[in-house]
Amino acid sequence: MYFNDKTRLLSLCNALTGEDGTDPEEIEINTIEETFFSKLKNDISCMYRGRLLILIEQQSTLNPNMPFRFFIYLQKLIEKIFGNELGKMLHDTKQIIFPEVEFYVLYNGQRKAPAYETLDLIKNSSTKKKNGLQLTVEFFNVNSPNNRELLKKSLPLEDYCVMVERVKENLSNGMNVKKAFYEAYKYCMQNRDWMKNFLAEHEWELMEMISTEYDEELALSLARKNARAEGKAEGRAEGKAEGRAEGRIEEKIEMIKEMLTEKLPIAMIARISKWSEEEILKIANKTFTVK
Question: Does the pLDDT value for residue 230 go beyond 80?
Answer without folding.
Answer: no
